[in-house]
Amino acid sequence: MDEPPHTIPTTVLRDNREQQPWTFDGYAVETRDVTLSTGDYAVPAGCAHDAEADTYHPQFAVERKSGHDFLTALTWERDRFTSELQRAAEWTQPLTVVVEESWEALLCNRGPMTWRDIHPNQIAGTVSAWTRHYNVAFHFANCRQQAELCAFLCLVRHSLLRRFE
């Protein structure tokens, strides 16, 4: 099941709790639904598998967030989300959070921001603080399709970087 670390991934592990999963249709990969301890998407290489719990523990993962989910993670589910960020503290590469909403829409009261009681400064300040204090990298995409491509490219990059470790 593990792929050599110097190849582009042919399999993407997708967390089976993902509510609106990316399918990576049109990409040269297959997806396997599994339980991931951290993140929503990972590649098999570099994942430790706990057979007893049937859970994969990645050393790199991509977390998918819709615009609404991202704002919820900043506010009402902040403690749960920061716990996830803490699980990636020892990784060599940061947990990648791909948001299916543009940075501009989040800061200009468009998209999921409409009718929200969250000031743009709160969003910018939280993203800045989390980037400084946790092993996390945020990517904002204009739409779901671009977010899926961004996630795939991050997984490919991780697979290629493993070659040099």
Summarize this structure briefly.
With 165 residues, the chain is of the alpha/beta class. It has five helices and eight strands, in the order ββββββααβααβα. The chain has one domain: Rossmann fold (3-Layer(aba) Sandwich).
Walk me through the structure.
The chain is α/β, with parallel strands linked by helices and 165 residues long. The chain has helices spanning 67-74, 78-87, 103-107, 120-133, 144-162; strands at 11-15, 30-36, 41-42, 48-50, 55-57, 62-65, 95-99, 136-140. The protein has a 5-stranded mixed β-sheet, with no helix packed on it. The chain has a 3-stranded parallel β-sheet with strand order 6-7-8. The longest helix has 19 residues, at 144-162. It is globular. The relative contact order is 0.18.
Question: How much helical structure, as a percent, in the residues?
Answer: 25-40%
SSE string, helix = H, strand = E?
EEEEEEHHEHHEH
- Count of DSSP H/I helices: 5
- Biggest sheet, strands in spatial order? 3-1-2-5-4
Largest sheet: 5 strands, mixed
CA-based shape: globular
Distance between the termini: 20 Å
Protein name: ERCC4 domain-containing protein
GO molecular function: DNA binding; nuclease activity
Organism: Haloarcula vallismortis ATCC 29715
Domain ERCC4: 15-152
